[in-house]
Amino acid sequence: MAEVALAEIGKRYADGTRAVESLSLQVADGEFLVLVGPSGCGKSTALRMIAGLEDISEGTLHIGDRVVNSVPSRDRDVAMVFQSYALYPHLDVFDNIGFGLRLRGMRRDDIASRVNRVAATLGLTEHLRRRPGSLSGGQRQRVAMGRAMVREPAVYLMDEPLSNLDAKLRVQMRAEIARITRRTGVTTIYVTHDQTEAMTLGDRVAVMRKGVLQQVAVPQELYDNPVNMFVGGFIGSPPMNLVEGVFTEQDGELSLRLGDQTLRVDPALAAAKPGLRACLDQPVVVGVRPEDLRDASMDDRGAQTVLNSEADLTEALGSDLYVHFSLPVPAVVTEDVKELARDAGADSPRERADRTMLVARFSPRSAARAGDRIAVAVDTARLHVFDRDSGRSIR
Amino acid sequence: MSTTEVPDLVPAGMTVTGPPRRSLVSRVVGRLGGFLATGAIVLLGVFWLTPVVGLAVASLRSTADNSATGWWTALTDPGRLTLDNYGALLRNEGVLNSLWNTVLITVPSTVLVVVLGSLAAYALAWIEFPGRDWLFVLIVALIVVPVQVAIIPDAKLFGSLGIYGSIAAVVAFHVAFGLPFAIFLLRNFFLAIPRDLLEAARMDGGRDFTIFRRVVLPIGWPAIASLTIFQFLWVWNDLLVALVFATSDNAPITYTLREQMRAFSSNVDVIGPGAFLSMLVPLVVFFAFQRYFVQGVLAGSVK
Ligand SMILES: Nc1ncnc2c1ncn2[C@@H]1O[C@H](COP(=O)(O)OP(=O)(O)OP(=O)(O)O)[C@@H](O)[C@H]1O
Ligand SMILES: [Mg+2]
Fold it and tell me: What is its subcellular localisation (chain B) (predicted)?
């Protein structure tokens, strides 16, 4: 067990690509840290540098109390779970799991007892003599986990270990990984681009973008207080709505103008974000999470915090009713927004025309249906405000 | 009369089709195509096998019979077949010696090419070093150098090294000419192994040689088996290199059998069984290795 410390780590590939820029991170002993970010942001590169599979171009890497920049993988006491599982096709499950121990010259019966113990934990006991080719995806994933666990390393490194599983199995294995890492107490660095995995698994979550670390925090903090528009938009599903608006002050009371509608702003917001007073009367980007938008007809909140619109589309999930609607406000188009849309695989619906699309999370009891006039109650105390140019959070 | 309609019990969206109905013409053509293909294969088989059978039969006939009639007459009179030629061959020291020479030449030529070739292929595929790609291009370019071009310079070189005429010279030549293709073939095969697999082995504590031996070799086995067979056959059946580089003491069987050819007749009693024996060994090698030509060795390793 060990702590991992990255100090201003940078990676420049041979072709000049700068995959990671000055990354500094402390992962405490026994902590589960998740590295998350859109595709190509350098998560895998960072992990592979910690694993010793990639040279570190700049900075220093500590594992435990050693600087390991030039220590080969095999001597770093770390184990990795690959996205592809990377099981040895010519070996059966037992030998796959025990391979690392054999290479380290452990005695046969010690290997057998360790492998059997790990296999029992993972429910692989009756498959020990099968080759990977005849295993299901979930079983292969377990073998890959077992191969890391059996070595009892100081650090687990996992690169999107669940992304090849179907949705149900992924949830199940996610819980299993949480259980195993919690019980063994081994420091874990886990890479994913799935923010649900990040939020559910991580003791802390580090969000990266284009090789640059944006924010490291416990999941709730990340959700409640994103440092910028990118983090705000990346964490949360459905994503945070981003709308351009203007805050104004009258008699010490703040209100927010969104297109042709004006909302009275809860004083709690101004209290929580003193920086807001410095950017009154100028356009800012307002972030509203879908769950902070509710059906006003089922809510007894004052009419001053209600937006009127028309439902474009409703999606009933059983537990929630997602209501899509639009406001006559020019869409927010920044690099952040574009990148978020690209990551979501959408061709940026927000970029369309002079209306901004929003999603509200109504109670399933709501009667709103597509085409209906709707009144949306906004929890203004929980608004997020971002600088339009820099994307930074205004606090 | 009322009929009750029985609804078809077919899941929605599925249409039921009987066995494909084809026109008579297309069926005839299909059959004919099948017959033609089978016929062609049989013909080809007969074409290739006839000389082999002829050789086998001739090797079992007496010298007198062989010079009097063709081998096929023996098929109607199998009683005259005899193992005498084989007996004589096994007492003929020259032939036995050259069979042994063939083994002495072929085994090291094959083993060296496979061992050196696979090591080099691993390095060229998976170890980073400056100039690696250029080195590989150079090696590939060597594949196109014809044997004939190198014979004279090599003969001189071996002469000055003092190994000209020895088995070592023949082996050296075969190894040198076998390696470029071996490296080319194996390097490309090794490169197709997923990188993750080698990295996993590295994380598991393997150094290059361990990874090579425990991961790359087992996975690359089909390619290695093919290479082994080809190299073995090529060296075993070689005459040209032996003629140039071996003295008659060190001559392989191909060389010795050729010496039995005369201008107007040939010693069928020696050539027949000799050639047949020399054919058996490659056949055994081929069948020993052909079961490794399996596809899908990577099944289940990644994804
Ligand atoms: N060997 C390489 N040579 C050059 N550039 C590379 C190499 N490997 C990765 N890159 C580049 O570095 C950047 C970061 O890649 P990386 O694989 O770390 O992304 P990632 O965050 O893991 O993405 P994903 O979620 O798609 O796995 C990308 O722009 C990628 O194209
Ligand atoms: Mg990746």
Answer: Cell membrane
Partner residue opposite B203 with nearest CB, options A51, A89, A132: A51
Question: Is A164 touching B (CB cutoff 8 A)?
Answer: yes
**Residue A330 confidence (pLDDT):** 82
Number of A to B CB contacts under 8 A, please give it: 90
- Span from the CA of B302 to the centroid of ligand 2 (angstroms): 15
Which of A362, A356, A384, A156 has its CA nearest to residue A288?
A384
At residue B99, φ and ψ (nearest 5 deg) are -60, -45
Chain A residues with beta carbon closer than 8 angstroms to that of B202: 52-53, 72-74
Q: What pLDDT score was predicted for residue B273?
A: 84
For chain B, the domains span 28-82, 92-298
Q: What ipTM did this prediction achieve?
A: 0.87
Q: Is the CB of A42 under 6 A from ligand 1?
A: yes
Distance A189 CA to ligand 2 centre (A): 13
**10-residue mean pLDDT series, chain B (303 residues):** 42 44 76 86 92 86 82 82 84 86 94 97 94 94 89 90 90 94 94 94 94 94 88 90 86 84 66 84 82 55 58
User: Long-range contacts of range B137-140, CB-CB < 8 Å, 24 or more positions apart?
Assistant: B139/B179, B139/B180, B139/B183, B139/B184, B140/B180, B140/B184
Cβ neighbours of B102 (radius 10 Å): 23
Q: How far is the CA of B207 from the centre of ligand 2 (A)?
A: 25
| B225-245 per-position pLDDT tens digit | 889 988 998 999 888 888 888
Q: Rounded to the nearest 10 degrees, what angle do helices B268-290 and B24-59 cross at? A: 130
Give the predicted TM-score (pTM) of the model. 0.84
Distance CA A381, CA A395 (A): 13
- The DSSP bridge partners found for residue A67 are A62
Provide the CATH topology of domain B92-298: MetI-like fold (1.10.3720)
